[in-house]
Amino acid sequence: MGAPGLIAAFTAGAATLAGGRALVHWGIRKGLAAPRVPHHTEPGALGLAFETLRIYYDQLHGKELSYNNILDLDACVRVVSDFEKPSCVIVKHTNPCGAAMHDDLYQAYQNARATDPVSAFGGVIGFNRRLNATTAEALSEVFVEAIIAPEFESGAIEILSKKKNIRLIRYDFEAARAQGSALPEIRKALDGYLIQDADMRRAGQTEWKVVTRRAPNAEEMHALLFGWTIVKHVKSNAIVYAAADRTLGIGAGQMSRVDASELAVSKSGKSGLSLKNSAIASDAFFPFRDGVDAAAAAGATAVIQPGGSVKDAEVIAAADEHNMAMDIRSI
To answer: What pairing do the DSSP bridges indicate for beta strands 87-92 and 167-171?
Structure first.
């Protein structure tokens, strides 16, 4: 990895124009120190250009999109764009509550929904392949806010349009991903904006090393990569239990990592899913060994995490005690 990245802090001044529009003047104020995260951009490396807005989606049916709909649709796109195989994700309040990949898109949807069918109610669902009629038929049987996919079969539109409110969004994933790599992430903070490059890397493109006595076997490695792909998109503290092609339990947005793990285990139990021989992915380091102990007790045999705790040695030793494989991967 290169030198520590910096996040650029911007301030903005606005002048009101005719028609209620605002002209925003941007300027770099200072650089903010950040962890060693490759996609954080150095101040001065960012240039903002105003271009004609390109629209990558068409709404084919349903009510007008709400603010929350757009955020959830964006979350869907971010998740399924990270997979090359046919995939499905179900999102609630920007958090994935289930995700899966499968050559059969219908099965991908069913496996994603099985992770947490209660939370899937009223969700926003994303696919990275053309939505077919078989999958649409299954979707029509439950309450869904919106569906986004690169294309819809005519039969799928016919089935889903019988529900007048469901929003059907056709999205150009390839063009948007290519453009998205050049667009920064922007967030308002205090009296300005924080801006950084988008992290467009897939799980297999990050640096990693095995730190335990036992290396993950092929099935465990597939599960680790799947879990790592999903946990990237879950609000911290985040824990994901995964198989090679699906999520088994997701714990999102908890104030402690142990709580996130317990939530993920609880949800998998309520959904009737076994965590035996599963992989656990953590979006940040385990501060203590208790998280690994809990994962082993739940049935996990492999762990993926970024590391960086002062107690890394203790955490790795715990994994060795449970004969677990641990992969430390860069973020």
So the answer is: unpaired
